[in-house]
Amino acid sequence: MELAFLIFGMALVTFAARYLILPLLAHGEPHPLFERVLHYVPVAVFAALVTPDLFARGDGISFELATPRFIAGIAAVIIAATTRKILLTIFAGLTIMWLAQNVIGK
Question: Quick one: which of 87, 55, 83, 90 has its CA closest to 69?
Fold first, then answer.
């Protein structure tokens, strides 16, 4: 029963989030503020997907700095900030992580 309430609640939140945006788009052109906010969505989603994996260790969280994931993450942030190209950032981050795993071995 608890699972059914959880699924219903998630469906309700998803529906509400999508339904509330429709009036903003009903008049043809979206408001400039809305466009500016949407501009940052891909970066925010990418960061939300990647950041937890940098600090996850087994059953907990670790803030070790000398791990391949953290080194690759910092390098990816620097590359993303300088080039602003997400595919280059992903490729470079994966390459640096592979190199760091072979050097550090953790």
Answer: 55
Asked if residues 67 and 104 have their Cβ atoms less than 8 Å apart, the reply is yes
Name the β-bridge partners of 57.
Answer: 60
**Pairwise CA distance, residues 4 & 63, whole Å:** 36
φ, ψ of residue 67 to 5 degrees: the values are -115, 150
CA distances, 36 to each of 41, 42, 45, 77, 81 (Å): 10, 12, 15, 22, 19
For the chain, report the end-to-end CA distance as a whole number of angstroms.
42
pLDDT in tens, 1-59: 799 999 999 999 999 988 887 776 777 777 788 788 888 888 888 788 888 888 777 77
Give the number of other Cβ atoms within 10 Å of residue 73's Cβ.
Answer: 19
Task: Find out whether 70 and 57 touch, Cβ atoms under 8 Å.
Answer: no
State the angle between helix axes of 41-55 and 86-104 in degrees (0 to 180), rounded to the nearest 10: 10
User: Where are the domains positioned within the chain?
Assistant: 1-30, 40-104
